[in-house]
Known about the structure:
This protein is α+β, with helices and mostly antiparallel strands.
Amino acid sequence: MKNEENMKNEENNRNNIININENTMKIDCPVCGGIKTAKSITKTNNIPYFGEMLESTVICDKCGFKHNDEIVLEQKDPIRLELVINSSNLSSRVVKSPSATVSIPELGLKVEPGPKSKSYVSNVEGVLIRFNDAVKRALTLFTDVESQKNGNEILNIIKNILSNKNDEKIFTLVIEDPFGKSQIMDLKTKKRHLSDEELKKLKTGITIIE
Ligand SMILES: [Zn+2]
Protein backbone atom coordinates (compact mmCIF):
# COMPACT_ATOMS: atom_id res chain seq x y z
CA MET A 1 0.00 0.00 0.00
CA LYS A 2 2.63 2.47 1.14
CA ASN A 3 4.66 1.48 -1.84
CA GLU A 4 1.82 2.27 -4.25
CA GLU A 5 1.14 5.58 -2.58
CA ASN A 6 4.74 6.59 -2.92
CA MET A 7 4.89 5.59 -6.55
CA LYS A 8 1.74 7.59 -7.20
CA ASN A 9 3.25 10.66 -5.52
CA GLU A 10 6.40 10.30 -7.55
CA GLU A 11 4.33 10.02 -10.69
CA ASN A 12 2.38 13.15 -9.81
CA ASN A 13 5.64 14.99 -9.44
CA ARG A 14 6.66 13.83 -12.87
CA ASN A 15 3.37 15.08 -14.26
CA ASN A 16 4.32 18.59 -13.19
CA ILE A 17 6.99 18.57 -15.85
CA ILE A 18 6.68 21.50 -18.18
CA ASN A 19 7.66 20.56 -21.68
CA ILE A 20 9.47 23.51 -23.25
CA ASN A 21 10.18 22.15 -26.67
CA GLU A 22 10.07 18.87 -28.48
CA ASN A 23 11.82 17.74 -31.61
CA THR A 24 11.41 14.46 -33.52
CA MET A 25 13.78 13.22 -36.17
CA LYS A 26 14.04 10.02 -38.25
CA ILE A 27 17.49 8.48 -37.90
CA ASP A 28 19.35 5.29 -38.85
CA CYS A 29 19.09 2.75 -36.04
CA PRO A 30 22.35 2.49 -34.08
CA VAL A 31 21.57 -1.16 -33.27
CA CYS A 32 20.11 -2.92 -36.36
CA GLY A 33 21.41 -0.39 -38.88
CA GLY A 34 17.92 0.12 -40.36
CA ILE A 35 17.88 3.19 -42.62
CA LYS A 36 15.70 5.87 -41.00
CA THR A 37 13.81 3.20 -39.06
CA ALA A 38 14.44 4.90 -35.70
CA LYS A 39 12.84 7.96 -34.20
CA SER A 40 14.96 10.31 -32.14
CA ILE A 41 12.92 12.49 -29.83
CA THR A 42 14.54 15.26 -27.84
CA LYS A 43 12.57 17.26 -25.32
CA THR A 44 13.65 20.07 -23.09
CA ASN A 45 11.73 19.76 -19.85
CA ASN A 46 11.49 22.12 -16.96
CA ILE A 47 11.19 19.76 -14.02
CA PRO A 48 10.26 20.92 -10.52
CA TYR A 49 13.37 20.96 -8.27
CA PHE A 50 15.69 20.07 -11.15
CA GLY A 51 15.33 22.96 -13.58
CA GLU A 52 15.97 22.38 -17.25
CA MET A 53 16.70 18.87 -18.37
CA LEU A 54 17.06 17.42 -21.80
CA GLU A 55 15.28 14.13 -22.39
CA SER A 56 16.47 12.12 -25.33
CA THR A 57 14.65 9.01 -26.55
CA VAL A 58 15.55 6.76 -29.46
CA ILE A 59 13.00 4.14 -30.59
CA CYS A 60 13.48 1.82 -33.55
CA ASP A 61 10.34 0.52 -35.33
CA LYS A 62 12.28 -2.29 -36.96
CA CYS A 63 14.13 -3.98 -34.07
CA GLY A 64 12.38 -2.49 -31.06
CA PHE A 65 15.53 -0.83 -29.68
CA LYS A 66 14.71 1.81 -27.11
CA HIS A 67 17.02 4.13 -25.27
CA ASN A 68 16.17 6.93 -22.91
CA ASP A 69 18.52 9.52 -21.42
CA GLU A 70 18.04 12.43 -19.09
CA ILE A 71 20.65 15.13 -19.30
CA VAL A 72 21.01 17.86 -16.71
CA LEU A 73 21.34 21.22 -18.43
CA GLU A 74 21.88 23.39 -15.39
CA GLN A 75 24.60 22.39 -13.01
CA LYS A 76 25.49 23.32 -9.49
CA ASP A 77 28.46 22.50 -7.28
CA PRO A 78 28.94 18.85 -6.30
CA ILE A 79 27.27 18.15 -2.96
CA ARG A 80 27.06 15.51 -0.29
CA LEU A 81 23.86 15.34 1.76
CA GLU A 82 23.53 13.35 4.94
CA LEU A 83 20.53 12.77 7.19
CA VAL A 84 20.25 10.52 10.24
CA ILE A 85 17.02 8.61 9.63
CA ASN A 86 14.48 8.61 12.44
CA SER A 87 10.74 8.38 12.94
CA SER A 88 10.28 12.15 12.68
CA ASN A 89 11.82 12.58 9.24
CA LEU A 90 10.37 9.66 7.27
CA SER A 91 8.14 12.11 5.43
CA SER A 92 10.89 14.62 4.61
CA ARG A 93 11.14 15.29 0.90
CA VAL A 94 13.94 13.73 -1.07
CA VAL A 95 14.85 14.94 -4.53
CA LYS A 96 17.16 12.60 -6.38
CA SER A 97 18.65 13.68 -9.67
CA PRO A 98 19.63 11.07 -12.29
CA SER A 99 23.31 11.63 -11.49
CA ALA A 100 23.07 11.00 -7.74
CA THR A 101 24.43 8.07 -5.74
CA VAL A 102 22.13 7.10 -2.86
CA SER A 103 23.39 5.02 0.04
CA ILE A 104 22.77 3.88 3.59
CA PRO A 105 26.37 3.06 4.62
CA GLU A 106 25.42 1.29 7.88
CA LEU A 107 23.39 -1.25 5.87
CA GLY A 108 25.93 -1.55 3.08
CA LEU A 109 23.33 -0.38 0.60
CA LYS A 110 24.20 1.81 -2.36
CA VAL A 111 22.50 2.67 -5.63
CA GLU A 112 24.81 4.21 -8.19
CA PRO A 113 23.57 6.01 -11.27
CA GLY A 114 23.56 4.01 -14.48
CA PRO A 115 22.34 4.61 -18.02
CA LYS A 116 18.78 3.96 -16.88
CA SER A 117 18.90 6.22 -13.83
CA LYS A 118 15.97 8.52 -13.47
CA SER A 119 15.29 11.45 -11.31
CA TYR A 120 12.62 11.12 -8.66
CA VAL A 121 10.94 13.18 -5.98
CA SER A 122 9.93 11.11 -2.98
CA ASN A 123 10.48 11.13 0.78
CA VAL A 124 12.80 9.29 3.16
CA GLU A 125 10.23 6.51 3.51
CA GLY A 126 10.00 6.19 -0.26
CA VAL A 127 13.78 5.83 -0.54
CA LEU A 128 13.73 3.08 2.11
CA ILE A 129 10.98 1.28 0.20
CA ARG A 130 13.11 1.48 -2.96
CA PHE A 131 16.02 -0.11 -1.09
CA ASN A 132 13.65 -2.69 0.38
CA ASP A 133 12.45 -3.67 -3.11
CA ALA A 134 16.02 -3.80 -4.42
CA VAL A 135 17.09 -6.15 -1.60
CA LYS A 136 14.04 -8.36 -2.29
CA ARG A 137 15.01 -8.57 -5.95
CA ALA A 138 18.58 -9.43 -4.96
CA LEU A 139 17.30 -12.23 -2.70
CA THR A 140 15.67 -13.95 -5.68
CA LEU A 141 19.01 -13.86 -7.53
CA PHE A 142 21.42 -14.80 -4.75
CA THR A 143 20.02 -17.89 -3.09
CA ASP A 144 23.04 -18.98 -1.02
CA VAL A 145 22.64 -19.17 2.75
CA GLU A 146 24.94 -16.23 3.49
CA SER A 147 23.22 -13.80 1.07
CA GLN A 148 19.76 -14.87 2.26
CA LYS A 149 20.78 -14.28 5.88
CA ASN A 150 22.28 -10.84 5.19
CA GLY A 151 19.43 -9.79 2.93
CA ASN A 152 16.75 -10.80 5.38
CA GLU A 153 18.55 -9.00 8.20
CA ILE A 154 18.55 -5.82 6.13
CA LEU A 155 14.84 -6.24 5.27
CA ASN A 156 14.12 -6.62 8.97
CA ILE A 157 16.02 -3.46 9.86
CA ILE A 158 14.23 -1.47 7.14
CA LYS A 159 10.90 -2.81 8.40
CA ASN A 160 11.78 -1.68 11.93
CA ILE A 161 12.79 1.79 10.78
CA LEU A 162 9.56 2.16 8.79
CA SER A 163 7.43 1.09 11.74
CA ASN A 164 9.38 3.32 14.17
CA LYS A 165 10.75 0.35 16.08
CA ASN A 166 14.38 1.31 15.64
CA ASP A 167 15.79 3.51 18.36
CA GLU A 168 19.23 2.21 19.25
CA LYS A 169 21.20 2.10 16.03
CA ILE A 170 21.98 5.02 13.77
CA PHE A 171 21.29 4.82 10.05
CA THR A 172 22.11 7.62 7.68
CA LEU A 173 20.76 8.44 4.26
CA VAL A 174 23.58 9.77 2.09
CA ILE A 175 23.12 11.37 -1.32
CA GLU A 176 26.18 12.34 -3.33
CA ASP A 177 25.47 14.37 -6.43
CA PRO A 178 28.22 15.62 -8.75
CA PHE A 179 25.80 18.15 -10.28
CA GLY A 180 24.33 19.36 -7.02
CA LYS A 181 20.71 18.97 -8.09
CA SER A 182 19.58 16.61 -5.35
CA GLN A 183 18.06 17.69 -2.06
CA ILE A 184 16.94 16.28 1.27
CA MET A 185 14.45 18.82 2.55
CA ASP A 186 14.97 18.48 6.26
CA LEU A 187 16.49 21.07 8.60
CA LYS A 188 18.77 18.41 10.09
CA THR A 189 20.34 17.53 6.75
CA LYS A 190 24.09 18.03 6.79
CA LYS A 191 25.23 19.51 3.53
CA ARG A 192 28.75 19.98 2.27
CA HIS A 193 30.75 20.14 -0.92
CA LEU A 194 32.17 16.93 -2.31
CA SER A 195 35.95 16.86 -2.30
CA ASP A 196 37.81 16.22 -5.56
CA GLU A 197 38.80 12.81 -4.20
CA GLU A 198 35.18 11.86 -3.48
CA LEU A 199 34.11 13.20 -6.85
CA LYS A 200 36.58 10.96 -8.68
CA LYS A 201 35.09 7.87 -7.04
CA LEU A 202 31.54 8.69 -8.07
CA LYS A 203 29.79 7.35 -11.11
CA THR A 204 27.69 9.91 -12.90
CA GLY A 205 25.77 7.73 -15.34
CA ILE A 206 24.89 10.78 -17.29
CA THR A 207 26.01 12.78 -20.27
CA ILE A 208 27.44 16.18 -19.51
CA ILE A 209 26.92 19.10 -21.83
CA GLU A 210 29.61 21.73 -21.43
ZN1 LIG B 1 16.73 -1.03 -35.03
